[in-house]
Specification:
Helices cover 47% and strands 12% of the residues. It has a seven-stranded mixed β-sheet with strand order 3-2-1-4-6-5-7, sandwiched between helices. Helix 3 links the parallel strand 1 and strand 2. Helix 1 packs antiparallel against helix 2. It starts with a helix and ends in a 9-residue tail after the last helix.
């Protein structure tokens, strides 16, 4: 419909010009008649589609009102904690040649009262990332399989070994994420199974960060695709998503235990993979705006170059379109 409307809008000036010039050629007259018929068809199509949209909207509104009256009971009331206790957190930081960054990042996270342990996953760094992180008080594990997803999965599994961990936080060791934002995650984790960070808030995103037009619009587009795949008519998706590539997220221990064996992507498209696995398990997912700073040191991921970004973006797109979850693994 949109294409037809655009075509009709483009040919209208030419038709008007021919009429103003009073061209008497029979072929021109026939073309003008055809154009008039085409524009009339497009106008009728647009009107009927709008009418159909209004009918569907009215139907959904009435249906929603009826259902709300029918199921208005305590089981559908949002659980608001009245006396929430602080959650003990274990923070997982993925790292690859981040020696300079971890000198700042590890102490910053360890300084937060709710953090019981910081785990740094060294993914074959060529510098002293692991050594420096260990000296600063982090537990360092080495993941030999090269890949962002492999490092994330290894870190999440290691965090589950800490029996004191009520909430596991996943972040990066490059200095882009602020440890003080843990308080935001803590505020929402009582009402959700997994809380995702989003980097597309202009107020909280450093202008010098990797979130340029390509990454901002691209993440919003891919997030929309996930919402369409996990559709909810009332809220345009079962979760409000605007950023699929943000590593910073918090997940309850029991929720992570449900999905950990289904996390299988070892590449740079791990983040949307984890989101879709969580939604497939019907986990409650909430997204919150987080502070996003310019990274310390050189980029190693999608923002390294436009070509690299396109490659990662296409792999995310393909994974979102082709993702299939095995129903037998669901609870």
């Amino acid at each position: 419909m949109l294409i037809l409307a655009v075509v009709a809008a483009l040919v209208s000036p030419f038709a008007l010009l021919l009429r103003v010039l009073h061209v008497d050629d029979p072929l021109i007259f026939a073309a003008l008649s055809a154009l008039d018929g085409f524009k009339s068809f497009v106008a009728d199509l647009v009107i009927w589609l709008l009418f159909g949209f209004i009918l569907v909207a009215v139907f959904l509104i009435i249906k929603g009102r009826i259902e709300r009256c029918r199921i208005y009971s305590a089981e559908h009331v949002v659980d608001v904690p009245t006396n929430s206790s602080p959650k003990s957190m274990v923070v997982v930081l993925t790292a690859y040649n981040d020696e300079e960054a971890v000198r700042k990042v590890v102490p910053e996270f360890l300084a937060q009262k709710m953090v019981k342990e910081v785990i740094v996953v060294d993914n074959n760094s060529r510098d002293a990332t692991g050594k420096v992180a260990m000296e600063l008080g982090a537990r360092v594990v080495y993941e030999s399989q090269q890949g962002y997803g492999y490092a994330c999965i290894r870190g999440l599994r290691e965090a589950l070994k800490n029996t004191d961990a009520e909430v596991i936080v996943l972040a990066e060791g490059d200095g882009t994420f602020a440890a003080k934002d843990l308080r935001k995650f803590e505020a929402y984790i009582d009402q959700a199974d997994m809380v995702l960070g989003t980097r597309v808030d202009p107020v909280l995103t450093d202008r010098g960060s990797q979130m340029d037009y390509f990454f901002t619009w691209g993440n919003k587009f891919l997030a929309t695709l996930i919402r369409l795949r996990f559709w909810d008519t009332r809220f345009y998706g079962v979760a409000r998503l605007t950023d699929v590539g943000c590593t910073y997220r918090a997940i309850r221990r029991e929720a992570l235990e449900k999905i950990i064996d289904d996390l299988k992507v070892g590449g740079n498209h791990f983040s949307p993979h984890m989101i879709m696995v969580a939604l497939s398990h019907k986990l409650r997912v909430v997204e919150i705006p987080i502070t996003f700073r310019r990274r310390i040191g050189e980029s190693k991921g999608a923002s390294r170059s436009l070509r690299r970004g396109l490659k990662v973006g296409l792999s995310m797109l393909w994974h979102i379109l082709t993702y299939r979850h095995n129903p037998s693994s669901l609870d």
